[in-house]
């Protein structure tokens, strides 16, 4: 990222993090609660709490289960739509501390990550990040993730809370086999960074909110989308917390994901919230924002049956990786890149009325030929019309293709549209 950050600083701080990608909800409160409950196998599995749980309760949060954690859905006195619009117009602050944060280190760390993902990491600059996918042997997506490169021997990775058990088991299995096969080259080490706080400050006012809390001389304008840096943040308690500040997020707006030491998480969060431009935002707003931005929610738009090509994530497969074909699941992925996949993720604009929710069947224009299903759908607060993402058969994915969706046993018109629904406003300098 920042060329001025030293290698020795990297070794000492070993905690850099990043943007992009991450996770959320349905549009109305009842639907959201059903969505979250479906991600868990029993009531006891959502007893986990982030370091901001008491903070959320203090600020009037409605708590729901998500990814094994008790997370804020909305906050007292602020509806989902109002919260959504505040992020689009000002700045919202999200707790994303439920995400699983990993460090991979060692002489073969880069090669190992390129074995389990199709990401191109060799040319990635230090303190830069990329979205990627964790692949099965069959080429299905086990999870989507963000990889941040500190150096060729040190990587920070963020995965989804709802896939924690599956991801950790898969990584452990692959890592054991990898280290056995590469004896003499130096083991790749893996650890989960438990207790680390992670918040997302999102919206057009984000940089103006954060800049005064940073050291004099550090200009956020130097931190473009996908870049990060270790920076001390001053708090209202007259303390300073060394945080990893990454430009990016899961809303399509300019913003930052900030990784915070456990003992400073509440202090830093309270300090950011003290700015009048900032409003706390929960999972409900996060889901509608990410869907407008055309971003996937694992377990809905993506799952183990979906390949990167089907999921409209072919761009995550680097050109050098396509040539080498040396990553897990490469046979299916390379075949679909060449011949086309059986289905594709698309955006839909749906006619007025009740929105087409997840599971809604999609038909060809004739209303008889079933061609897919909706994976996420909401009434868009920004556009004032119904939007959805769907997996449809190849050939029905082209822009402006007319389709039909079955909502409450009635056929409604839909048309394939380009993603994102709302143009992204990432800061690129």
From TrEMBL:
**Residue ranges of every copy of the GCVT N-terminal domain listed in the record:** 52-320
Listed GO cellular component terms?
A: glycine cleavage complex; mitochondrion
Under Gene Ontology molecular function, one entry of this record is: transaminase activity
Keywords in alphabetical order = Aminotransferase, Methyltransferase, Mitochondrion, Transferase, Transit peptide
Q: Name the top EC class.
A: transferase
Enzyme Commission designation:
2.1.2.10
Q: Which domain of life is it from?
A: Eukaryota
What subcellular locations does the record give? Mitochondrion
- Residues spanning the membrane: none
Instruction: Tell me which residues bind substrate.
Output: 257
UniProt cross-references to Pfam families, sorted A to Z? GCV_T, GCV_T_C
Q: Which reaction does it catalyse?
A: N(6)-[(R)-S(8)-aminomethyldihydrolipoyl]-L-lysyl-[protein] + (6S)-5,6,7,8-tetrahydrofolate = N(6)-[(R)-dihydrolipoyl]-L-lysyl-[protein] + (6R)-5,10-methylene-5,6,7,8-tetrahydrofolate + NH4(+)
Q: Which residues form the Aminomethyltransferase C-terminal domain?
A: 343-422
Q: Which InterPro entries match?
A: GcvT, GcvT/YgfZ/DmdA, GcvT/YgfZ_C, GcvT_C, GCVT_N, TrmE/GcvT-like
Q: A GO term (biological process) for this protein?
A: methylation
KW DNA-binding (keyword) present: no
Keyword Methyltransferase carried by entry: yes
> Its quaternary structure?
The glycine cleavage system is composed of four proteins: P, T, L and H.
Q: What does this protein do?
A: The glycine cleavage system catalyzes the degradation of glycine.
User: In which family does this protein belong, per the annotation?
Assistant: Belongs to the GcvT family.
Please give the PANTHER family that the UniProt record associates with this protein.
Answer: AMINOMETHYLTRANSFERASE (PTHR43757), AMINOMETHYLTRANSFERASE, MITOCHONDRIAL (PTHR43757:SF2)
Official protein name in the record: Aminomethyltransferase
